[in-house]
Amino acid sequence: MKRTFSLILMAALVLLTTAPVSAQDKTIKRKVAIGRFTNETQYGKGIFYDKENDPMRKQALDILSSKLAQSGKFILLEREDLDVLVAEAGDQMHKIGADYIILGSITQFGRKNEGNEGVFTSTKTQTVEAGVSLRLVEAATGLIIYSDEAKGYAETTSKQTLGLGGSAGFDATLSDKAISAALSQLVENIINKCMDKPWRSYLLAEDSGSYIIAGGASQGIAPGDTFNVYKKGRKVRNPQTGIEIELPGMLIGVVKVTASIGDTPETEVSFCSYNGEDLDEQHLENYYILDE
């Protein structure tokens, strides 16, 4: 009896360890594009100021990209012409290929020096304050789903005794630290907002009985993953705001990934089998995919 029970238990464990992992049991990485990051302050803007090569703007952009990449939950899309594409896309921002678009700006920046002179010692404290604003736009709808502003501070102190000790000029790394401190307060909220919403994709085409969806291996999609297929709900316009709202879609079927191809996150697609209501293959834009 004991031997029979042990065999049954071992068989169950084998089934559990060899069964395919469904998409709902793992995290699908979101594609994020930083569409614009500007410096709205007047700091460092002289007569020869070049907006496109603003060092503070680049600082903030690099720090934000690094923090998002370190989370391991995003694929960052780097496009030199992304600002132009966002402007041209309008309410069709999902065509950019990102799940979310981040728009940011440095809204405040200042620095000050404070000193204290004693009989034998003197101290000098350098302080930098930076304010950063971020907006998170859902590409599928064009709606802003998160917007906030935060401030960060950084300081350093040098001390001299009887003329000996540090007498350094302005510490340039303080601006990095202040901007990083401000962004740190916002990035966690951005991560939560992105991951709280279901991953969304689209039916791109039908090919010899298989359906092709956007997304592939770099996002964590693998053969055996299953996703729900929805038919889009109709759109209604709110007369008070003028905003067009898409009503919730209707669940009509399921796709199962059989293979993925593509060289980059932008070009990756997956081939899927489909089970559910008949699809209108002439109007696949009327459907979307969710991992729920």
Polypeptide structure, described:
The strands form three sheets. Strands 7-15-10-13-14-9-8 form a seven-stranded antiparallel sheet, with no helix packed on it. The chain has a six-stranded mixed sheet with strand order 2-1-3-4-5-6. A two-stranded antiparallel ribbon has the order 11-12. It has helices spanning 2-18, 55-70, 82-89, 173-196, and strands spanning 30-39, 74-77, 100-117, 121-138, 143-161, 164-165, 200-201, 203-207, 210-214, 226-231, 235-237, 244-246, 250-261, 269-276, 287-290. The protein has two domains: 23-196, ABC-type transport auxiliary lipoprotein component (Rossmann fold), CATH 3.40.50.10610; 200-290, Thrombin, subunit H (Beta Barrel). 22% of the residues lie in helices and 41% in strands. β3 and β4 (121-138) form a beta hairpin. With 292 residues, the protein is α+β, with helices and mostly antiparallel strands. Mean pLDDT is 80; it is low at 4-23. The chain is built from four helices and 15 strands.
Q: What are the SSEs and their pairings?
A:
Elements: H1 2-18, E1 30-39, H2 55-70, E2 74-77, H3 82-89, E3 100-117, E4 121-138, E5 143-161, E6 164-165, H4 173-196, E7 200-201, E8 203-207, E9 210-214, E10 226-231, E11 235-237, E12 244-246, E13 250-261, E14 269-276, E15 287-290
Parallel strand pairs: 1-2, 1-3
Antiparallel strand pairs: 3-4, 4-5, 5-6, 7-15, 8-9, 9-14, 10-13, 10-15, 11-12, 13-14
Helix pairs in contact: 2-4
